[in-house]
UniProtKB/TrEMBL annotation:
Highest taxon of source: Eukaryota
GO MF annotations in UniProt: ATP binding; pantoate-beta-alanine ligase activity
EC number(s) from the headed UniProt entry: 6.3.2.1
Organism: Candidozyma auris
One Pfam short name: Pantoate_ligase
Stored NCBIfam families: cyt_tran_rel, panC
Protein name: Pantoate--beta-alanine ligase
Keyword Ligase part of the UniProt annotation: yes
Reaction it catalyzes: (R)-pantoate + beta-alanine + ATP = (R)-pantothenate + AMP + diphosphate + H(+)
Recorded family membership: Belongs to the pantothenate synthetase family.
GO biological process, one term: pantothenate biosynthetic process
Length: 308
């Protein structure tokens, strides 16, 4: 691997020593947790942190606890050298990158079968079970656990997450509130490809042709948002089912082998299903779509949302 000019920290003790110096210098610390395979969406979060904090640290860790036994943990892209180059290419470089081994983050060990796991885990009840949580039952338990561990290690002033993962943002905000963690969660807008496709590490699984066709995912969500704006002009609440139908009408043009897992209209803070949407509260309109991978090995699962 090419040598990096960025300080790479491999252990919890190294990060804590680095953070202790920041405390001593009374420097604010911004933190961007990632699973690597960095794209412009990630570097956008990093740029926000660099602008708003004295120091910035990025973590790169493919978290096994958020994968089910049948999911793509082994296939998940691992591109550390390229990731470091992307961070070095920014006009202002990050101060440190935390790249731990699995044994460092899970000292009791970790297996993918939840029933066989040992150790401490974090569940954020009430906002983890619906939407993505319904499709992937152990997913947010794994996310909440690793985010809690990372925040405990880094103790950042601010931590940065992307709006594309809307449910994750709600889960993380709630765990920080309920566990009394002294970190401000900053949610940044979704970065998109020119055709509207939300930037995601999973886009690497797709052929260019499929990426082009994926523009329909965002178009459908925008159709739902436009429906709300049109129907709410009278000042009356808009039925969530009307918004969903507007999205579905757009998705009728999808390739027949694609599978829409859900289209949901949810409360923006609790993620509870809404029957009606009002302008004063708004909603999160979200979807998950399975599309074929370019190598024919299965499907990639793409998620997206818009706020209304």
């Amino acid at each position: 691997m090419t040598a990096s000019s960025i300080q790479i920290l491999r252990t919890v003790s190294q990060v804590r020593a680095w953070r202790k110096q920041c405390f001593f210098n009374r420097e604010s610390v911004g933190f961007v947790p990632t699973m690597g395979a960095l794209h412009k969406g990630h570097t956008y979060l990093v740029k926000n942190s660099l602008e708003e904090n004295d120091r910035t640290i990025v973590s790169i860790f493919v978290n096994p606890s958020q994968f089910a036994p049948h999911e793509d943990l082994d296939a998940y892209p691992r591109t550390l050298e390229r990731d470091l180059q992307a961070l070095e290419g920014l006009s202002k470089k990050v101060d440190a990158v935390f790249v731990p081994k699995v044994s460092e983050m899970f000292p009791s060990g970790i297996v993918l079968d939840v029933a066989k796991q040992k150790g401490a885990f974090v569940s954020v009840l009430g906002c983890s079970e619906q939407l993505e949580g319904k499709q992937r039952p152990a997913f947010f338990r794994g996310v909440a656990t690793v985010v809690t561990k990372l925040l405990n290690v880094v103790c950042p002033t601010n931590a940065y997450f992307g709006q594309k993962d809307a449910q994750q943002c709600v889960v993380v905000k709630n765990l920080v509130k309920d566990l009394l963690i002294d970190t401000t969660i900053r949610v940044c807008p979704t970065l998109r490809e020119p055709n509207g496709l939300a930037m995601s590490s999973r886009n690497e699984y797709l052929s260019q042709e499929t990426k082009d066709k994926c523009s329909i995912i965002y178009k459908g969500l925008c159709a739902g948002k436009e429906c709300f704006e049109r129907e709410s002009a009278s000042g009356k609440p808009v039925a969530a089912s009307t918004i969903v139908e507007a999205v579905k009408d757009t998705y009728k043009a999808m390739s027949p082998e694609w599978q829409v897992e859900y289209i949901a209209v949810s409360h923006p803070e609790s993620l509870e299903d809404l029957d009606f949407v009002t302008k004063d509260i708004g909603a999160t309109v979200s979807t998950a779509v399975r599309v074929p991978k370019s190598d024919g090995s299965g499907v990639a699962r793409l998620i997206d949302n818009v706020q209304i």
